[in-house]
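Note to self: user wants both folds in one dump. Writing first protein now.
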Amino acid sequence: AIAATMLIRIRNNVGTWRIDLSSGGPDPSIVDLYRAIRAEHGEGLVFTTPLSKDPRGSGAMAEDDESSLSVDLGLRNGDMLHGRVDPETVASVGDGGAQTSVTFVGTDGNIHRRAATADDLGRSFRPGMQALRDMKMQWTLNDFMAMDDRFIFKIKRQDAADCPHVSMESGEANGFQSYLREFGFQRGRMGYLYGRYEDAEDAPDEKKKEKEGPAADDHKPTAAPGARKVIVECIYEPPQSYDAESDTIDPLDDPDGDERVPILAAHLGLERVGWIFGHAPREEGFQLSSHEILTAAELQLEAAGGLEKSTPFVTVKVTVGPDGNAVVDAFQVSRQCMEMVAEGALDVHPTRPGYCKVVDTFTAVMEGKNSDEVENNFFLAVVPIGRHVSDVYVQQFPRANRDGQPQTHEAMRRQLSKSGTRGWEFIDLLADFSLLLYLCEFQGVGSDIMQKICASVIDRKVPLDDGYKIMLAGMAGMDGAY
């Protein structure tokens, strides 16, 4: 059975929808999902491309498929599906009595949605909400104001980022930039940052500080006392697709990576500390699109485990400046942005990528005036960024999931054959996150050999048994010394 909360995100050509299936039974099916979507967005809704876990449309989900979302498809709360709809068939609140959805605050204190009836329209407390008397019969003024406050956000900039500084491993950063440059920075690319959090009592080392991009001129936040900085050691780039028309990057289904990467990182004492993406040049002042804002907020929420705690989790973006040099900036979205995304108050703007659309049920107040959109920069806090050279890891093996850069035993042989030359030792060359991830395909991420290799990588005083070296050298087709 699935968890009590089951929310599925649907990304399509008119926006991103959040479909609450929590009240749809213990184990909803694909049929139930389509039914819930039409309950919210119109019974006449037409899918021009069926739902799929893959943005490219493979593995399409038929509308009459009774397969379980959780058991058969492995979907979890918050997972993303993709599809396309006919925009003219999407209903909105007040569309001539078309069936939509209504929002209400449940007995658990959380915001939920249910299918609306014609009776709901025109008498709702807010657009897309139930009428007050449908929620409870007796209301006091305090009850009403408390209810209304749940749906009002007074937009304000968060001056201090929760993360005071992020340091990117130089080789990893250069490798990511170089791949973007192969396509003239015209193809978007993303990856997850793995590293560690450290106490940030000391100011960043200015000798390591990287040239900051235009975002640094907006404002220079000071982190709160007790904040932790981010040290990035590795980047994992999942399978992904890029849509040039919408300028969006979508991670594809990655069951092997989902299983292996977190376990391998844990063996190495690392964790996911941020994400990175690259994009083509944009107009001055346009930092993150609404799609990227929502992604950053969702990832920060996941890292923080909700809204109760802050997180140093960062967003790093890479582009190219007018002079042809790469420009790297780091951000966090504000805690207010995280809250609005958690409540379903923000969506992708259909026409202005530099703005987030405010969902009709909610009210955003900017400078004393109601607004149906929020400029994305209001949600951003700049994080100073620098570089370091890792004293543990190298970056020589081809990265996973890149076009034209296959990971092979021959590439492994070329790398490990450097052992004994120019000061390289065998374990030094094994200390490559991409190579270790490749080895997991053949040895198993939880195997004894992988755990022993990782132990020797992070502590060179722990020797790697000669038997393991012989086995790895044989796997790589090496005849010489190791």
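First done. Writing the second protein, which came from a different request thread.
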Amino acid sequence: ARRVFAVMVAEEQQRVFQLQTAAATTIQAHARAMLARRLYAEMVLAEKQRVFELRTSAATLIQSHARAMLARRVFRIMVAEEQQRVFQLQTSAATLIQARVRVML
């Protein structure tokens, strides 16, 4: 009877050990899955941040070039207007000088 009881106890211990091993394996699998999901979420967030920063820098560069192009265009217009104003002033001065010279002749 002792021998039978010892075998039953050994079998029970074996069964408990197998259950504990299975439970530990399941817990480890869930923990690894949770860590993998967290790592994946962090990677996705990092990629989104990288894309956002890339798009932001690209937009800033495009805006900078657009502002520079517009500034050059405005400057050319201002130069042309100033040249036109100087030409008109010179023309008026020449006309006035010619009129005065004709009066003196």
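Dump finished. Worth passing along: The longest helix spans residues 2-104.
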